[in-house]
Amino acid sequence: MDDATPQTPALEAIGIGKRFDTVIANQDVNLRIEKGQIHALLGENGAGKSTLVNILFGLYRADEGEVRVNGEPVRMDSPHDAIEHRIGMVHQHFQLVPVLTVAENIVLGNEPTRGRGLLDLDRAADEVTELAERFSLAIDPGATVEDLPVGMQQRVEILRALYRKADILILDEPTAVLTPQETDHLLEVLRGLAAEGVAIVFITHKLREVLAVADQVTVMRGGRVVGTTTPAETDQAGLAEMMVGRSVVLRVAKTEARPGAGVLEIRDLHVRDDRDRPAVDGLSLEVRSGEIFGIAGVDGNGQRELVEAMTGLRTIDAGAVLLDDTDITGCTPREISELGVAHVPEDREKHGLIGPHSIADNLVLNRYFRPPYARRGLRQHAAINSDAERLVTDYDIRTESIGAPARSLSGGNKQKVITARELSHGARLLVASQPTRGIDVGSIEFVHQQIVGQRDNGVAVLLVSAELDEILSLSDRIGVIFKGRLVAIADAGDIDRATIGRLMTAGSDAA
Amino acid sequence: MNLLRSALVPLLAVVLAIATGAIIIELSGLNALEAYKALYDGALADRKGIGRTLEKATPLVMGGLAVAFAFKAGLFNIGGQGQLVIGALFAGAVGYGVTGLPWIIHMPLALLVGAIGGALWGMIAGALKATRGAHEVITTIMLNFVALNITDWLTSKVWREPGIIVRTPAIEPSAEIPRWSELPTGFALSVAAAFACWYLLERTTFGFEIRSVGLNPEAARYAGISVSRIVILTMGISGMLAALGGAIETQGVVGRYEPGFNAGLGFNGITIALLGRTHPLGVIPAALLIGAMEAGGSMMQFKADVDPEITEIIEALMLLFVATPILVRWVLRRRDASEISVGAHWGDA
Ligand SMILES: Nc1ncnc2c1ncn2[C@@H]1O[C@H](COP(=O)(O)OP(=O)(O)OP(=O)(O)O)[C@@H](O)[C@H]1O
Ligand SMILES: [Mg+2]
Questions:
Q1: In CATH, which of 3.30.450.20, 3.40.50.720, 3.40.50.1240, 3.40.50.300 is domain A11-244?
Q2: CA A172 to CA B215: how far, in whole Å?
């Protein structure tokens, strides 16, 4: 890259300020995105990253400051304006219509027509195929979006932006929901797009990705830009320190597990998915008190159904789930929870939180009905609030008030609310799906310490994560799930990353 | 502060509706001031007028509560009319059929039987939703027809007063809800019901569960709340509220059950709930307002020649302005400072 030629940046934010009531989400933010470069935006949960890119995409209106596209000041009043200026955005929560096909979703809003406003779906499909080939984002244009795994859905989102000829692409935590393989492929695609001249804004909490693809890095903290750097000038520890303002332990410090008696036993479990296809297919496992059992696997191999079945949320076809030798097969979610099972669900927005309820109410969502939070059917706000104050402090949940609705929190802070609630449940068994998805490095360190702390207190932990790093650094034993079965179970020390990776994608044939 | 803000839109809507109504009255060649004076005289000027307003407002509070309460669980109860006639008839049947009880027992007993009838009727729709996934809008509408036919049949065949008019016999005095110097005490009951609903929703764990199901049923299920149970119970309570409105009408106003006497009363609940912003306490002023319009409407017609249709137009305008706060804001040229919702994004469908 030639640093000497001063070129007009593709996208520029100058002195952006944004408040939500009393919260200052952005303050005097300057950002410069060059053509053909990948610009990583980094920062703690609640630092103001999503707010900033939402302003750039016209979803929020800035209170102060100016946005320039190719050097020209522009008004960004709605996403429509942003699209006019050829800005595309891939949201963390996909904005797709589940019942429509891939091609229909991609052309939605710019549909090719055949005279008189008749949809020309054949042409749409052809155009999509062509586009997909050009950017090596292979996809079946006729597939229905709801049938696709997340990685593919995200591909649809990217293709949609490209279909609208975006030459500025904004991605808000695109890799949070991807498997390592999908992530690698996405990074590859982003490099390719940048080489074609597309300017890319890329938000992530994964420092490895930043170092791998970014040309420029901007770090935010507390609504302000605290610095810019390049991967050449820094490393993971340096980035982490810039984000959090202190040095961060990136490896989990933990002692040898001292497992006790078996807590959870699953015997030959069979469960079907939403489409009635077998998802868990004869799975057995045991988790003992004082150990962390990690389940590694590519998303969609039955993890979700396994967790839902054992927490009472999904019907079990055959097999048994035992908790301390009590058969809990067929018990209700409440009964299972009351027997001492805490559950961090993987989809925080849909399953983990009730957005309009206050943060305090969400922090007791698994225990609001029992003393001291309720007495004789009446809610006890004093107890609820004092618990909430404590958890907000302990887990460093960034909010102005525990009375604020949970939906006003930043993505990572929402995750912290759920994690805080479930880890303070006083459970014997903790089932955690993606407990650190979307959480910043500093908080991951804390959550990991908490999970290990639970283990050391004799809790049995079942960890399901698409982050192989997380599985490897936390687990005492690891099971690899493939097509609804555990194809391998091993002590963490006896299995390496490459083997797990092979087993995840090819099942036991690979071993 | 918060209360003031949420009351602002309905208040302005009412003012706008009255102003627009004045223009319509003037345009039809009448005197708006005179008309509104008559409205005031009929609805508020004296004890008698106030009594009329409260009497009209009572079933409206109950119908509005029924809709607002169900709405907290994310349910649309359009079955208020059916639930109301069931409550009205059952209360009437107990009111005349059971004799020899003291007032302190007979009056509440009739109310209770009416309420239970409505609760069970409401639960049918709830159970259909919880077990079969049938949408409550469809089932409650259909159940309205069923309820009307059942009550008609019961009135004409089973509990009929001898004679040519199809109606039940007059209730015993011991079942009556008395007036207290022109003022109907049934209104106090409806206000008590509104406060009870508010307390239940805001202070109890059961209310928390109802609101949780209404806001995010999936997350509520993950939190261990039985969504089916909440749906059935909420529809039961909602049906009970509407039915109590009918029972109070029978025991406090009409004195018996007579088919057609409360036609349409149940449907007004939707209007009232919207006007009250689906807040259990908000329905009280909303019902008083519409009650006053109804009570004063006849006086407007009598004294100022204003057609009843114009009264209805003004009521409809109030609803229109409340339901479309954008109109009110537009009129006030006041841009809402709150955030553009992310849902308004182009990708949404
Ligand atoms: N709609 C909103 N209403 C009120 N406050 C909000 C709203 N959106 C964001 N905030 C607040 O603004 C601040 C910045 O939030 P933002 O979502 O931009 O953070 P972020 O950097 O994207 O964090 P994360 O990494 O957790 O996604 C937070 O304190 C958040 O609570
Ligand atoms: Mg964010």
A1: 3.40.50.300
A2: 26
